[in-house]
Amino acid sequence: MKTTFALHSMEQLEAENAALRKELDSLKSYKLIDDNVILREQLREARLQKIVMICAEAYGVTVKEVMSIRRTQNIAWARQLAMEIIYRIGEMTLSEVGNYFGGRDHGTVIHAIKSVRQRSEWRDERTRINRARQLCEIVTHRNENQNL
Fold first, then answer.
1. Does domain 2-147 have CATH number 1.10.1750.10?
2. Which residue has better confidence, 135 or 4?
């Protein structure tokens, strides 16, 4: 009888061990998924910061000023361009773009997109806007290729 009990217990332990290994493997997969999500979010944030930096430099202002509530022309134009580029490359929805820039409304982002479109018809602004867009595209494509 003791032998049957010992075999039964051994089989039970092996089954429990297999179940625990399966659960551990599953937890490891979730951990990898979580790490991947975190990494993707960090890369996305880095891309957004680079876009804001490029737009700030295009208008001779700082990133801090672009992210502030100040509305002087160069700061507002840099912010509007950054909003337009971030929305255009598909990083965020209108509301998400507005939230990223200090809780602004989606209507503010729509206005920014229209303003950039209008200013891009002006000769001097067209060059500045197109150069910033090209630099931002390079930044976003490089990071996308690194994700592959």
1. yes
2. 135
